[in-house]
Design a protein that fits this description.
Blueprint: E1 20-23, E2 28-31, E3 37-42, H1 53-71, E4 75-82, H2 87-95, H3 100-117, E5 125-128, H4 129-145, E6 149-152, E7 155-158, H5 174-183, E8 200-204, E9 212-213, E10 219-222, H6 224-235, E11 240-246, H7 250-265, E12 271-277, E13 280-282, E14 285-286, H8 297-302, H9 307-315, E15 323-324, H10 327-344, H11 353-364, H12 369-385, H13 393-405
Parallel strand pairs: 3-4, 3-11, 4-5, 11-12, 13-15
Antiparallel strand pairs: 1-2, 6-7, 7-8, 8-10, 9-10, 13-14
Length: 409
């Protein structure tokens, strides 16, 4: 599967700072010090509907991670998956009387368009669950053969008790895990499981649903968590720098994935930092496909909203914060974009070297994009009220905003 085209990232003078970011597993800030190539895995979409603002906020957060690393003169090895076969996709295809493959391809194509418009840097590897199946099957077989998985009516389940480090990503107790498992795709009430929290690794073929040859596992399709594990281990290996996604993925998805990988490899942890973006709400509830309370990137674009304004709306909120989408937050971003573009369109302005460092410091401090925006606002105010004589300053500001914040002025 192919990703989307990369926008050019301008080179800036000097060098950025190492990223200090909140790690869900340790419940505190950690300073990341990757090698020459920083490694990051971000969980992708299940393509049964268009990119909504919650998706955009998550991918914006991890786009900033990439930009901070690039500014430190590192390369970035970024991997993202597409869950192009799963129950929600099959259910939507049946509801709309459309082939599930056609639906997945259509929505994945629209996602690529949205990511391109928002200037999100693409992953080096963009892998669908279906194309990953040949790599998933042997991992499930290894877990089963090692006694870390078991069969139940043809389905294969992972035993969470096989991992002594289970629970160290989300830090939740068993009762909380059980509630979230039921809400987020698990089946804790299924009779016959060794532990209610055990997640499915391989689902035996169901009538009327797609299935693949699973070798000794039989016909079926992969579970949700093992998909990402197979892709991450294949392309990044263990102990990569950042595992990312929305905060609703901390449990069960990242917790279970970490356990799968740790049992398979005997290494701990799967990732050096588990980083989670907050939820975007609308009318008092989390924006989600199941609730149908969505603001779509593509619809805003069709309505003539500048993608740079959409991105500034996202940047105005700290990536870990839960926040509410309103017409006003978008209008504030439209107004800010207009002020910034007017300021950098002048032939000269106040010196901007200090501003570049302010943006770097803000982003290195747990991706504090609102502080970075405030720094640019201050430069713009100086430009409006005092002016300046530095003929290179507007260009420096424009390149810094593009390189570090992904906003083209």
């Amino acid at each position: 599967m192919y990703a989307w085209p990369a926008s050019e990232v301008p080179a800036l003078p000097g060098q950025g700072r190492d990223l200090r970011i909140h790690d869900t597993a340790t419940e505190g800030l950690v300073t990341l010090d990757p090698g020459p190539v920083a490694r990051i895995y971000v969980c992708g979409i299940t393509p049964y509907d268009a990119t909504h603002m919650g998706h955009a906020a998550t991918y914006n957060a991890f786009d900033l991670v990439q930009r901070v690393w690039l500014d430190t003169k590192r390369q970035v090895h970024y991997v993202q998956n597409v869950t192009d076969v799963d129950d929600p996709l099959l259910e939507r295809a049946q509801r709309d009387d459309i082939d599930w493959v056609a639906l997945a391809e259509k929505e994945t194509a629209l996602f690529r368009e949205d990511m391109t418009a928002l200037r999100m840097l693409p992953p080096r590897h963009y892998i669908g669950a279906v194309e990953a199946i040949p790599g998933i099957v042997p991992l499930v077989e290894r877990l089963r053969d090692a006694g870390a998985a078991y069969e139940l009516d043809g389905d294969i389940y992972f035993s969470v008790e096989s991992d002594p480090n289970f629970g160290k990503v989300s830090n939740l107790d068993a009762a909380a895990m059980r509630v979230l498992s039921a809400e987020r795709g698990g089946d804790p009430e299924r009779p016959g499981k060794k532990n209610p929290l055990d997640p499915m690794l391989w689902m035996a073929a169901r009538a009327g649903e797609p299935s693949w040859d699973g070798g000794s596992l039989g016909q079926g399709r992969p579970g949700w968590h093992i998909e990402c594990v197979a892709i991450a281990l294949d392309h990044l290996g263990m102990t990569f720098d950042v595992q990312g996604g929305g905060s609703d993925l901390a449990f069960p998805h990242h917790e279970m994935g970490a356990s799968h990988a740790q049992v398979l490899t005997g290494e701990f942890p799967m990732a050096k930092a588990y980083v989670h973006a907050g939820m975007v709400g609308l009318h008092g509830e989390k924006m989600s496909k199941s609730k149908g309370n969505l603001v779509f990137v593509s619809r805003l674009r069709r309505d003539g909203v500048d993608p740079a304004a959409i991105r500034l709306t996202l940047l105005a909120h700290h990536y870990r914060a839960d926040w509410e989408w309103t017409d006003q937050v978008l209008q504030d971003a439209v107004d800010r974009l207009g002020r910034w573009r007017a300021a950098v369109s002048r032939p000269d302005g106040p010196d901007a070297e200090a501003l570049v460092e302010e943006i770097r410091v803000a982003l290195a401090n747990d991706l504090d994009a609102p502080a970075a925006l405030a720094a640019v606002d201050r430069w713009v105010t100086r430009q409006d009220t005092e002016g300046g004589t530095d003929i290179g300053a507007p260009g420096v500001v424009s390149r810094a905003v593009d390189a570090l914040l992904g906003v083209a002025l």
